[in-house]
Specification:
The complex is a heterotrimer of chains A (300), B (312) and C (537).
Chain A lengths: L6 H4 L15 H10 L2 H18 L36 H37 L1 H16 L2 H12 L3 H28 L2 H8 L4 H37 L11 H8 L8 H30 L2
Chain B lengths: L1 H27 L3 H10 L6 H10 L6 H13 L13 H36 L3 H14 L4 H15 L12 H30 L2 H8 L4 H19 L1 H18 L5 H10 L3 H29 L10
Helix pairs in contact in B: 1-13, 5-6, 5-8, 5-11, 5-13, 6-8, 7-8, 7-11, 8-10, 8-11, 9-10, 10-13, 11-12, 11-13, 12-13
Chain C lengths: L3 E12 L2 E13 L4 E5 L6 H9 L6 E10 L2 E2 L5 H5 L6 E4 L13 H11 L8 H11 L5 H5 L8 H13 L5 E5 L7 H18 L2 E6 L2 H7 L2 E6 L2 E7 H6 L4 H9 L20 E11 L11 E12 L4 E5 L6 H8 L7 E6 L2 E2 L5 H10 E4 L13 H11 L5 H14 L16 H13 L5 E5 L7 H18 L2 E6 L2 H7 L2 E6 L2 E7 H6 L4 H8 L4 H4 L1
Parallel strand pairs in C: 3-8, 3-9, 6-7, 7-8, 13-18, 13-19, 16-17, 17-18
Antiparallel strand pairs in C: 1-2, 1-4, 4-5, 9-10, 11-12, 11-14, 14-15, 19-20
Classes of the chains: A mainly alpha (300), B mainly alpha (312), C alpha/beta (537).
């Protein structure tokens, strides 16, 4: 009886949902969920904005990001240039919006690399177990011993500069994290009674993998993927700030901050505005990840 | 004793494996000679003979397995090779770059632990829901900000606007403050996040109820019962935290134009100075391994269950 | 005057989307030196009541109205600081689960001494010695050694004794015990409760005993309070409640309580033809982790030379406490684990070493119902998917035929057909276990192994599930291997009972014989530990 008599569950008098509130439709529930979380709604809007500007930058910033107007050099934020202009007289807003494309591409590649490679390693290690698990996890342990940024730097030193190489480096540096979570989830699900029950009714192992293990393990891994999206934006922009990304004058979020650095004393907005954009995007992504992680499931 | 030997063995294994991984990445993924050529030629054409001479000079003319074993053997004797760029031994370059980095890393770690633990303990102790919400929101805000940008904004505010602190350089303790704070912010946030989580878990455990039923006051419950248990998971991230702190100096030293290991790394990567980059990676792995060894030694003091079952 | 007087107490919990009333107007009195048992099923509010009395409700709980007075002093509305001088000193708490209720990183002695220090009953120098005395009084042998150990070095029974030492340290006038023994094996539970009785008699403390087990309440309490859905439905002297229950809910509980209701044991089934299942000399060793400094691997013999047969239409029960090897035996029989030595037969055929296709075919003949219906159903599956999973696994029938079979199966386990589209979270524990039974029946097996099938369920639900298992057996001639720690449950369902201890099968006899005339000393101890007997005598 120990499961039931855990004080936390025994003390919780929540009636079984079947006898509680009438079941609400999915859409009504989503509406109620969002209405109570205005911060989450803003975060989703920010993410939608970023995604749209990555594909159709001209929609929000019709100008040319490389067009320099010498007469309008270093103007502070104001009407017409609401992120200000840079030292060559280029509109910072236009450059930030057009920079979204490269930064986001790199981020997506990084997350995809980490998710696919790390996920497969973790799944293999967790489901097969034995020496396969032992070997794979030792490799993962080593990868975890090297700080991600340094690992990424080593990869860049080998692969050379450029947005794609930066993206791959950031992705590979996060593989270990994904492998660990995926393995832990796979092992947790594989050890559950319902997976053994499936085996005990004669379900073949690959069916068990597809129908029980993967769907139940996917949740936490996807939450991690969303979280990783935020971390990858930070890592990609850091490397781009250090000068390993796309060569100028192509705009990238990190390199925009770096360009503004020399004018920090006189024209703070050249640094501040692109950085603020990065911060807002990462904050929004993390907020959504938090909502996916627990709040949505708990708020039934 | 066996416990210690096991941990030492594992530490050696991690070091060897990071050597192998970094060797594979740096020597196999790309051709170091191409880098050498780019460095040596200065735009003029290079003859095959010159190329071979270059290869021979850095031991790159050998077959890969031989190179690997020779370099590994040298590394075991403490010789990490010679920089492609300045021709100095890698070990000496790192040792020379280290002191200023150690300064900000130590200051950053102290600040991070103080910030992180302070925020986490206050957030879980306070009875004001409002204050708890604000404090618990701080870490997730701090980890979302790009470090380089935070550094620049601090410079803009404290150096250019207020004129309180120097913007760049490494002279005097005043120059240490901004880099250390910048470095401590994400690290402290990470510590706070882990500690808030483990404290919240510990505070709902039945043994806390037992303590409260004894009539123990809230502060004693918090510090004597909950923290003792919550510190254990927080300690496990210390190795990771220190490693990231070290990696953070790469960005921070660039932002504040300070000399140090971080700057050296940035330049080595820009020059594709393969032996030096590998040296830095190995150094980071060594720090990680040493910190984890220290954590392993502290563990049994904090958690009596550890001495019994040896973790794999 | 009564020691504890609770009047019109109302407690609710804040949950997402509103509040839930947990205690709805409870009046209760406990006199000095009296033992009052609060009995109810999960969700009845009994634990909440106990927590409200000591002022330790979970963070989302709040007292809405009412009064709790100790010795005439109102406790509700007092400051946290004032309450602290009551807790531990005047009210002692014996918590539910000894496994997690002691601080794992503090020595036992320190944790006992802390009460004395907090209430200034001892100073820094005298506290450790007093703590050892208290541990001794709580019945811990070698108390001085134990005081220097950490909780993980003690067994569950010893930990609960340490917690009792904490509770009695300041000689409180009132002890509250919240399910003090439900996490322990029956024989240990009985010793602990006996010892608690003795201690209480010495100190004259009153005891508020919260329990789901009417048998325990009947054995120990002067008065019984029956709670259901946050209200007291009936209270009175123990004998009166047991003999003349007035409320229908109390009558239902009494009828369902395994230890109290006297049921005639089932007669043995006449043996004819090959037994459906047989095991011969089964042995299972588990390797233990290597001891420090040793390269030899020690083994734990979980199952030690066990043999038995199960006839068609028979229920064979294996009883034992945790670690007795009963569940491992069941898994060996189903070939979900491989025996170290010995043989397993199903319907006369040796299946000890079958692999691959033949192994999978076993699943059509023998099925398993798990202990915990909360864990054995995939949370993402609908009930229909759960029940048809075995059919899909063997490709039985078309999609329509499978759907029809699912409808037929839920009907057989007495669930409405509308349940088919629900997910496990939407079902109660009893409903989930019915779904698990329906899944086990999907392939029409001959043998169903039930591993503690009702131990996670409330008693009234237990009775329903046991009745269902019995009906299915009558109708389809099923055979069961029934694994349980609860002799009272076994008595209701089994034709024959085997008693296991330390991996060995001590005796295996027809149910009635075993209960009336146990041969083995250990069986007698087990029988003696069934709660509710003292009341029945």
């Amino acid at each position: 009886m120990t499961d039931l008599l855990d004080p936390r569950t025994a003390a919780d008098p929540t009636p079984t949902p079947s006898s509680g509130r009438p079941p609400t439709t999915g859409r009504a529930r989503l509406g109620r969920f969002l209405r109570r979380r205005p911060g989450l709604v803003v975060s989703i809007l920010v993410i939608v904005f970023v995604l749209v500007s990555a594909v159709f930058p001209a929609l929000f910033a019709p100008g040319d990001p490389t067009l320099a107007v010498p007469r309008q050099r270093s103007l502070p934020p104001g009407p017409g240039h609401w992120f200000g202009t840079d030292y060559l007289g280029r509109d910072v807003w236009t450059r930030v919006v057009h920079g979204t494309s490269l930064s986001l591409q790199a981020t997506l590649i990084a997350v995809a690399v980490a998710l696919v490679v790390g996920g497969l390693i973790g799944l293999l290690a967790g489901f097969v177990g034995g020496w396969v698990d032992e070997v794979l996890m030792r490799v993962v342990d080593v990868l975890l011993a090297i700080p991600p940024i340094l690992l990424a730097l080593a990869l860049i030193a080998a692969l050379g500069f450029g947005t794609t190489n930066v993206a791959i480096a950031v992705g590979v540096a996060s593989v270990a994290q994904f492998a660990r979570v995926m393995r832990a989830e796979t092992m947790r699900i594989r050890g559950t009674v319902y997976v053994e029950a499936a085996r005990a009714v004669g379900t073949r192992w690959w069916v068990t993998l597809g129908r029980h293990v993967l769907p139940n393990a996917a949740g936490p891994v996807l939450v991690l993927a969303v979280l990783e999206f935020g971390l990858a934006i930070l890592a990609v922009s850091s490397l781009s700030f250090l000068g390993y990304g796309a060569p100028p004058p192509a705009p990238e979020w990190g390199s925009l901050v770096s360009e503004g650095r020399n004018y920090l004393a006189t024209a703070w907005w050249m640094c501040a505005m692109p950085g603020l954009t990065i911060a807002a995007t990462v904050l929004s992504v993390n907020r959504v990840s938090k909502a996916l992680d627990g709040e949505w499931g708990r708020d039934r | 004793m066996i416990y210690l030997l096991r941990r030492l063995g594992f530490a050696a294994l991690v070091l060897w494996a990071s050597y192998t991984v970094s060797f594979a990445v740096l020597y196999l993924l790309a051709d170091p000679v191409a880098t050498l050529v780019a460095r040596a030629s200065d735009g003029t054409a290079i003859t095959t003979a010159e190329l071979d001479a270059l290869r021979a000079r850095y031991g790159l003319d050998q077959p890969v397995p031989v190179q690997y074993l020779e370099r590994l053997g040298a590394a075991l004797r403490g010789d990490l090779g010679t920089s492609f760029v300045n021709g100095q031994p890698v070990g000496r370059t790192i040792a020379e770059a280290l002191p200023p980095t150690l300064q900000i890393a130590t200051a950053g770690l102290v600040l991070a632990v103080v910030f992180g633990a302070g925020v986490a303990l206050t957030a879980t102790y306070t009875r004001s829901r409002w204050l708890a919400q604000v404090l618990m929101g701080l870490p997730s805000l701090a980890v979302s900000l790009p470090v380089f940008w935070v550094g620049l904004m601090l410079v803009q505010l404290f150096s250019f606007q207020l004129g309180w602190l120097p913007a760049v350089g490494a002279r005097g303790p005043a120059a240490l403050i901004l880099p250390a704070v910048t470095l401590a912010l994400p690290t402290g946030a990470l510590i706070a996040q882990v500690l808030v989580k483990s404290m919240s878990t510990a505070l709902t455990e039945p043994y806390v109820t037992t303590a409260r039923a004894k009539g123990v006051g809230p502060l004693a419950v918090h510090l004597r019962h909950a923290l003792g248990n919550a510190a254990i998971p927080a300690l496990t991230v210390l190795g990771y935290v220190t490693g990231n702190l070290l990696a953070g100096t790469v960005v921070v030293e660039t932002v504040f134009t300070r000399p140090g290991l971080g700057r050296t790394t940035v330049e080595a990567v820009a020059d594709q100075d393969v032996p030096l980059v590998q040296g830095v990676v190995l150094f980071a792995a060594l720090v990680f391994v040493l910190v984890n060894l220290a954590v392993d030694l502290i563990y049994p003091l904090l958690d009596p269950r550890v001495t019994q079952a040896v973790p794999a | 005057m009564s020691l504890l007087r609770v009047q019109d107490l109302q407690v609710d919990y804040r949950v997402a989307g509103g509040t839930v009333d947990a205690v709805r107007g409870v009046d209760l009195e406990v006199a000095t030196g009296e033992v009052v048992a609060v009995v109810g099923e999960s969700g009845s509010g009994k634990s909440t009541l106990a927590q409200a009395v000591i002022g330790l409700l979970p963070a989302n709980g709040a007292v809405r109205a009412g009064s709790v007075a100790l010795d005439g002093e109102e406790l509700l509305g007092r400051s946290e600081k004032a309450l602290r001088s009551v807790r531990g000193a005047r009210i002692g708490l014996v918590p539910q689960d000894p496994g997690v209720s002691l601080n794992p990183v503090q020595k036992i002695g320190t944790q006992v001494a802390e009460v004395l220090r907090v209430h200034v009953l001892a100073d820094r120098r005298s506290a450790p010695a007093r703590a050892v005395e208290l541990l001794e009084r709580a019945g811990i042998p070698d108390a001085a050694v134990r005081a220097g150990q950490y909780p993980h070095e003690l067994s569950g029974g010893l930990r609960q004794r340490a917690l009792i030492a904490v509770a009695i340290a300041a000689s409180p006038a009132l002890l509250i015990a919240d399910e003090p023994t439900s996490a322990l094996d029956a024989t240990v539970a009985r010793q602990i409760l006996d010892h608690l009785d003795t201690l209480r008699a010495e100190t004259g403390s009153a005891l508020l005993l919260v329990t789901h087990d009417l048998g325990v309440a009947a054995d120990r309490a002067d008065r019984i309070v029956v709670m259901s859905q946050g209200r007291i439905v009936e209270q009175g002297p123990t004998a009166e409640i047991l003999e003349r229950p007035t409320h229908p809910y109390t009558r239902e509980l009494l009828a369902a309580a395994p230890g109290l209701a006297v049921v005639d044991a089932l007669p043995p089934v006449p043996v004819s033809g090959t037994p459906i299942a047989e095991v011969r000399n089964l042995v299972k060793d588990f390797p233990l982790p290597r001891a420090r400094g040793s390269w030899r691997r020690e083994h734990l013999r979980a199952v030690d030379d066990v043999s038995f047969t199960i006839a068609r239409g028979e229920t064979l029960a294996l009883v034992g406490e945790s670690g007795s090897g009963k569940s491992t035996t069941a898994r060996l029989l189903l070939r979900l684990a491989d025996p170290t030595s010995g043989q397993v037969f199903l319907d006369g055929a040796d299946i000890t070493t079958v692999r691959g296709v033949a192994w999978r075919d076993l699943r059509r003949r023998a099925q398993l119902v798990y202990q915990n219906p909360f864990a054995s159903l995939d949370p993402r599956f609908s009930v229909r998917e759960v029940i048809t999973e075995p059919l899909r696994a063997f490709g039985v029938g078309t999609r329509e035929e499978q759907a029809a079979r699912a409808a037929e199966l839920v009907d057989r386990v007495a669930l409405p057909e509308a349940m088919l589209d629900r997910r496990p979270v939407e079902l109660s524990g009893g409903q989930r276990q019915r779904v698990a039974i329906a899944r086990a029946l999907a392939l029409s097996p001959d043998l169903v192994v039930c591993d503690e099938p009702v131990s996670a369920l409330d008693v009234s639900v237990q009775a329903q599930v046991l009745d269902l298992l019995h009906e299915l057996q009558e109708r389809d001639g099923l055979s069961y291997l029934f694994i349980s720690h609860d002799l009272a449950v076994v008595r209701r369902v089994a034709h024959r009972v085997g008693v296991m201890q330390g991996g060995r099968l001590l005796e295996l006899r027809p149910t009635r014989e075993l209960f009336d005339d146990p041969h083995h000393e250990y069986t007698r101890t087990l029988l003696g530990a069934i709660a509710g007997q003292q009341a029945r005598v």
